[in-house]
Amino acid sequence: MLPVRTEALLIDIDGVLTVGWEPVAGAVATFAELRRRSLPFRLATNTTSRSRQSVADALSGAGFPVVAGEILTAPVATAAHLRRRHPDAAVLVLSSGDLSADFTDIRTVGPGEAADVVVLGGAGLVYTHEELNHAFNLILDGAAFVAMHRNLYWRTARGLELDTGAYVTALEAATGRTATVIGKPAEAFFIAALEELGVPPETTLMVGDDLDNDVLGAQRCGMTGCLVRTGKFRPDVLAASPVQPDLVIDCFADLFHAVID
Fold first, then answer.
1. Measured distance CA(194)–CA(244) in Å, rounded
2. Phi and psi angles of residue 248, each rounded to the nearest 5 degrees, phi first
3. What is the CA radius of gyration of the chain?
4. What's the CA gap between 16 and 237, in Å, rounded?
5. Using the 8-state DSSP alphabet, how is residue 70 labeled?
6. Model confidence over 132-182: pLDDT tens digits?
7. pLDDT digits (tens, 9 = 90+) for 48-78
8. Reported pTM
9. What does the alpha-carbon distance between residue 189 and residue 153 come to, in Å, rounded to a whole number?
């Protein structure tokens, strides 16, 4: 049981509600119970291969009826950062999927073109040697370096796959530059979610499958961190961590009887 009453939740998507956009066992019914109880929530995700509306559509199709405004994504937060910190800049976005709906008013450039800002989004087939080498040279020449997140891997229907953070780390080592990270576990990402919900961190529960980016990132902001043993969860990572989650549950379906009730 929690030490304080839970007034709102932040919930990761990949590995918590779905894997490969297929529902995790029991998650649909638990989400319906969340709706029934009218608990405020935001789905806080580093998913970068889809626009926010596309994420909402995919989740609704999988049995989780949500609207785009209930989802906070790394691309949406990145676009806001670019508008605020790099207005009118030429931006190279290296990311799988179509993010144009979330990047309105951002002046993006094509492969091989000059850019003032390099943004790394979702890892995928666009991460070729040629594209990464072009990004490398732009950063060396002074382009700002932004990463939507630095997750090292994620779980798909095929199993664990390398994610953006592996390439961010490589480019940081090669260029000597440190990326500005926008998504989880950046403090600004969690603060944005709390501001949307209008709740303090001490009464907010973060549920995720990524110990570092979801759970410990939320705990550093004063939230309660709950780790699920689904998705990318690995027991060896949990055992080796010097900082532990506030709670560990088997899956999202255990949320109410193991955590909130």
1. 22
2. -130, 125
3. 18
4. 17
5. G
6. 999 999 999 999 999 999 888 877 778 888 889 999 999 999 999 999 999
7. 878 889 999 999 999 999 999 999 999 988 9
8. 0.79
9. 19
